[in-house]
Known about the structure:
single chain, mainly alpha, 2 domains, two-stranded antiparallel ribbon, 5 helices, 43% helix
Amino acid sequence: MSQADSLPSDLNRLTLAQAAGCLAEGHASAVELTEACRFAIKRLQPVLNAFIDLDEEDALDAARKADSERRSDGILNPLHGVPRITRWTRWISYLGLPALALPIGFSDRGMPVAAQIAGRHFDEAVPLSLGAIYQRQTDWHKQEPSLDTGY
């Protein structure tokens, strides 16, 4: 059994602000938060199908590095060590807003196009629910671009 299999369920439900607070107050490490996210992703992925590739080792390496930096340098920024899923939603995450990117079709040149749904502060359920509904109603997440896109 891995560490994530025995983590308290409340770590899986933290908002960004709460996760940053746990790190700042020493109630959780970046590795523990990352393990909690990994556990939640593995549990929800069969239902949500939200991830194409999950590099768990890279995420854990980044968390270990963040923990080491927090110990040696103190707090670098409030979110240093908080797990992140994608760099494309980072600016929204820094504002404390949950976000989700969804494939919505292809451009005239055949390149994938996505839309981003952002929720209110600390309300992750709304973008995830909207994304799940959208994905059930469309098949864009199953389509692939043509390799002959002119690029």
